[in-house]
Input
Amino acid sequence: MVASAEEIASFASEEVLGTLAERYEAGVFSRTLWKRMGEIGLLGLTVPEEYGGSGGTPLELAVALREFARAGCDLGLTLSWITHLALCEKSIEDFGTHGQKLEYLPRLSAGELVGAAAVSEPRTGAHPGGIGTVARETSSGFTLEGEKIYITDGPVADVLVVMAATGEEGGRKELSTFLVESKAEGFSAKQLELNFLKTSPHGRMLFDGVVVRKEAMLGARGEAHSKFSRAAFSRERSLVIAAMPGHFESAARVVARGITARLEGFDLEGTPLYSWIHHMAALEGYRRLSSSVVEDAFRDPVGLHSTGSMDVLVYLGVSYAKWAGWIQEVASSHGVGSGFPLELMLNDMRLVMVGEKLLVKEGRKRFVP
Output
């Protein structure tokens, strides 16, 4: 059953925000909170109940993420949830066998396991032509060799969806995906220091002769890019876009309270006042647009790339970076840019700067002659 927005906000404000300062300082991922998120149905949202999920619609997921980000002020844990669901769970749901779904989805939905996806590599990122990790076929399965980097939740993940080259066809790499458990011999992960999103560890991962069974292949051989990665990353980006208005709204409220305390009233005039009204009104537009993009991304994630929804995604990604820059400038100019939780929230807004770079590349292909 899907938790209500009020229940999600209550949980996030009490248990997530209530422990945020300590967790952020330590730079740790909380298995305790993760299990609680599973217990109240967050981790299994949109996953069918027959596989241990909570059910629910993409719109309900978008609202849940927004409320969680707004009340919890923890963009790192929000990103971990998005990665877990969009890149791992939904990929197993879409491409997995009945046996794979039964083996993993109930435990992923319950918070017993943390899921992630290992695609990005040093120097080439997630570009399919640059994937160097290989899966060499053996009589009983495959042996994985390679390196992945900047993998969200890589250091804490229990099960990974790994993209690797299984051969070449017509001069192009044949890419396939595999389900790999972190306890497998030959696998290791090291946490990287990003200085932001500290509650969502990112890591470098090595596959040194990791042996997997043939049954560990997820989906059809050679369809890792055409189906898995295009679908997974469309879902992921749409969910990040959906969560950010909640994070922005919370940051704006804290800034407003800080300004009021310093000036004994919210006495913005002239250009600052008009700018504040403009940016706060924009949040409502962001909420509405992002929800529709999530619905489209879940309905047809591969087709999203050729529709107007991708144009909206590009627009929102670029707009978010400008919005984040604006709230940081307002906070700084009024001397309220420090203190908990604002300092952490502003720091984590660097995520939208990273997202902007990715979406500008897409925009260049779509709009620049």
The longest helix spans residues 224-263. The two ends are 48 Å apart (CA to CA). The beta strands are 115-118, 134-137, 141-152, 159-169, 172-181, 187-192, 202-213, 217-218.
